Amino acid sequence: MIKSKENEDSNIEMAKNIDNSYDIEVKDLKKHFKGKRKMSDVLAVDGISFHVEKGEIFGLLGTNGAGKTTTIRILTGTLLPTEGTVTVGGFDIKSEIQKIKEMISVCPQEPAVYKFLSGIGNIKFFGNMYLLPKDQILKRGEELLKLLGLFEARKRLARGYSGGMVRQLSLIIALINEPDILFLDEPTVGLDPRNRRKVWDFLKTQKVENKTIILTTHYIEEAETLCNRVAIMDYGKIIAMGPPQKLIEEHKVKNLEEVFMKITGRSILEGI
Amino acid sequence: MKLRRVFTVVKMEMTRQIMDPLVLVFTMLLVPILILVFGLAMGNNYGWDESNTYTIFEMMLPGFLAYAGLLTIYDVAAGVAGERETGIQKRINTTPLTTAEYLFSQMISYTIKPIIQLVLGLGIAVAVGYRPKIFFGTEYSIGLKFAGCIMVILFMVIFTFCSVGFGLITATLVKTASAAGGLAFIFIVPQQIFGSIIPPYILGMNAIGWAMPSWYAAQGMGLLFAGTPFTYWELWVRFGVLLAFSLVIYVIGILLYERKKRS
Fold first, then answer.
1. How many domains does chain B have?
2. Is A46 a domain residue?
3. Domain CATH for A169
4. CB pairs under 8 A between A and B
């Protein structure tokens, strides 16, 4: 009888493990960068676990070097984890990366666009990587260019764009394939308040369309406005996780920055 | 493998080269200009041994042409490292573009330039009076001339693949495009000196040249220009060794690139 109960528990545990309602599931993730000397070894991500539900905007908050970008790089397949398991869209990050790449898109921290291509040239290049129909690339591209105010500059080479324009183009590229899961690594850094607001409004529409978004940011207001839940990272660990409002209430403070300060004794904006 | 992705990357690579005139001039016109200068200066110079059948220019020409393939090392190393430096490589790695598609596109885009240089270089050599027997020899049939022409292109293509491999290896060893450009010359200079440009009659050079892929490319093309029919066994030995070199270097390049991709 006891044995049967154990089996039942084990089945429940297994069922949890293969639960597909999560778009992203991270368990005991560690990333260790080995330096040339032992002193320079870095444990960038230290055993974090979290999940992201379908249609959720999930924020990763933390100071520079907290491990946010490393986490995003592992989730998007450009970095292998040292330990732990990660599934994205139900696929394992180590063995099924190609399937994951078909359904995700990434807006990296660096404004990674081809400077010698025009705005529309960059959009077409990345649209072709996803084998989207050509008319769809143009239609979607033009919609996004108009939405983010780059339509007039679409034929200009990206090397002539301002820093803010390159960032916006980078975001448009990330959205061209209408991904199920979107990774945004500090997407509004370098944007003026008006354009930042435009991006926020756009991301809110994505929330309505049931897209899953993982967002890293330094901007407290951004996290509070957009995210359903946030994970606050510090030195590679998650030190707090939950809906922004709930975290604020739990810690009896005014905003997420104060939550961070209350837990770590430091400001989240340190080192920026 | 999706050809649409491959040709999108090829188109982008060609645009990159066209949009950077300095690089274009350096990599596209350097070899034809060298051939023009040496052709005019040494087209009638038989060196210190008057019994030589060939002029110094005739002996150096295959090496100059192989040099066009050698410059690919610099192009690939600087291009790949540059993309990594700007973060665009990381971004590409998050798209469905596979390693095989990416590397195939690199092979195509970086082979086009040496072939253009080969045609331009040979055209200039003919303009300054050089007459490769495989194309101009009256004793050869049209079929044999055509086969010889294909063989010259094949030597160039296989040698360029080898250089793409060297370029990938270089790009994985450094972090910036400028460092990659500098390091590329470690692979370029020995091949340039011992394997291509120095005429083979200088004592002792051939032995060192055997370790250089460029030697097999230059010597293979040289044999063809001198009128060796494509069926000649020595030609195929050189082709075989060059092919083996290229495969080994290319595979090492791919393995290192793949390792770097997720680290």
1. 1
2. no
3. 3.40.50.300
4. 72
